[in-house]
Prior knowledge:
The strands form 2 sheets. A two-stranded antiparallel ribbon has the order 1-2. The chain has a two-stranded antiparallel sheet with strand order 3-4.
Amino acid sequence: MFPMIRALVGIGVLVAMASGVWADEKPAADTRLATLRADITALVGKAKCANLVNCRVAALGIDACGSPVEYVAYSWLSTEKAALDTRIAEYNFAFEDARKGGVTAGACTPLPEPVAACVNGRCVIPAGR
């Protein structure tokens, strides 16, 4: 075989192998994010409240400009804050790692921080806020 053809075949094999490794990382990152998000939802639980004072808002995810991607309402009465903060930090680190491997966003539009409300004994983020 000609040396040039051997080199091109070698490069093609390396590219194919490398793209297979990178392709496997995305599903693992998606699974990790889904697991952490489920953990956060479980920690928030029913977010029981007696009034608005019991409700708080936490930011989740970090977009390309450093703004939160979403917010979650929780109750300081029924949520273990330290465990929630730890899981949110893990989620944000995993989210940022996953974002770095993907496509970056064009324009930055920060998501305004909503105000939580106590509705029917549960902390929620009202629609449109």
